[in-house]
Structure formats: C-alpha cells, structure tokens
Design a protein that fits this description.
By secondary structure, the protein is an alpha+beta fold. The chain has 6 helices and 5 strands; from the N terminus they run αββαβββαααα. It folds into 2 domains: 129 residues, no CATH class; 66 residues, no CATH class. Strands 3-4-5 form a 3-stranded antiparallel beta sheet. The chain has a two-stranded antiparallel sheet with strand order 1-2.
C-alpha cells in the first residue's frame, strides 16, 4: 500500500506536536532560564528531516518613523512540493545599549525578532522569558521602579512580580498603531510608563495604555472636527 503523504499543514502540525525546545540558557542577572533562536533550530532539525521539510529564517531592516526595526521571517518549506508557510515578527533597535556597539544592537534585535518569528510558526509560548531583558549579568541593576528582567518560573503565583510578563507581538502592534493615530512619540510613552522600550511594557499595564491612547485619539479627532467646521 502506498504511503500517504502529508500536506504542508499536516507537516507543520506534526512538528508543533513533537517539538520540545527546552530553555537551555540561563540569565544569572535576571535569575531565569530562557531559550534562544539557536536552541529552537537545534531542536527542530531532526523533526524536519523526518517530515521532509526545512525552515528558512531571514530578516531585514525597516525604517519606521525615526527608528529602525528588524523584520524577521521564519518560513517552513515542504521539500517534496516546495509549498511554504511563514510567520513574521518585528523588533525595534534600541537607540543605545550599554556595552554594545551599533552592530551588536542590531544583532540583538535580529536575534529577538527571529526567535519570535519561530515561536509563532512553531507554536512556542515564550511569554515568561524575553531576550530584550537578557543582560547576561553585564549591566547594573535598574533604578527603583524599573524592571530588571522576568521573574523565575519557580516563584509562587501570589508573588506580585508574577505579573511582569510582557505584551505580545499583537498587543505591541496595536499600541504602535494607536500611538501613531494619537501622535504620541515612543519616548513620551515609555517615560509615562517608566519603561525602556514599548516591547517591555508589562501586560498588566496594557489595558491602561490602550484606554489612555483612546482618550488621546478621541480628543484629537474632536479637535480636528471642530477646526474643520
């Protein structure tokens, strides 16, 4: 009896179901474990061979406003049919980062974007660790009121720091769109919420941010209507 071939989506489902990508890295400064792009690729390679597929990851720089973003694309290709499916993620370059030159800043943003492009494609949940807070013990502790990193997964659920998971890519994009409509600059937003970048906005502050931006947008629209009459 002839072997039934899987289509691309069946192969993707098989990969997602079988993939185990443990957090093999450890951040001493933030005291948490995390996985990076290389960990995911190393774990998925044997499964790709089994289902006859491959993954291609790449990125490009985009200038949005006055800031550069890295757009990463993770593409799954069926080597039998050449059909493909992809997922995209974005990461904004920091204006500067202590101990890094410009190429390292871009590299860090690239690593972050590629990792989350793979996360989306392969259905990996990384809400409890983020390369954006990965200081590898090289930076000094942040000032009071600033978050230095993700809490460890061993902390009890009633610990106040357990709410420090950051916004998702979808929420990030929503805020970006609303800020553009409201005419709010990134720097002003980050200052208001006492964060270093929009990507590390705690998820428990997301609704508050959306509410404030809605008020600003409505006020701006009302002002435009009045000036147009």
């Amino acid at each position: 009896m002839a072997e039934t071939k899987m289509n691309l989506y069946q192969k993707l489902q098989a990969i997602q179901s079988e993939l185990k990508a443990p957090k093999g890295q450890f951040n001493k400064f933030g005291n948490y474990k995390y996985r990076n792009c290389e960990d995911i690729l190393e774990a998925v390679k044997p499964i790709l061979t089994k289902v006859k597929a491959t993954i291609i990851v790449g990125d490009e720089l985009l200038l949005i406003g006055d800031r550069y973003y890295v757009k990463a694309v993770a593409r799954l290709v069926d080597t039998e049919t050449e059909a493909s499916i992809e997922n995209t993620a974005y990461a904004r370059e920091e204006e500067s980062k202590k101990g890094m030159d410009s190429s390292q800043v871009t590299g860090a943003a690239s690593s972050y974007a590629r990792k989350y492009a793979l996360n989306g494609l392969l259905c990996i949940d990384d809400t409890k660790d983020s390369d954006t807070t990965n200081t590898h013990g090289k930076e000094e502790p942040a000032k009071t009121g600033q978050k230095t990193g993700k809490p460890t997964e061993d902390k009890p659920k009633d610990d106040k720091s357990a709410n420090s998971a950051y916004i998702t890519e979808e929420q990030f994009n929503t805020l970006q769109d609303m800020m553009k409509q409201a005419g709010v600059e990134d720097k002003k937003f980050c200052t208001a919420f006492k964060i270093e970048s929009l990507m590390v906005l705690p998820v428990d502050k997301y609704e508050s941010a959306v509410k404030k931006l809605k008020i600003t947008i409505e006020a701006k629209e009302k002002k435009n209507e009045q000036s147009g009459t």
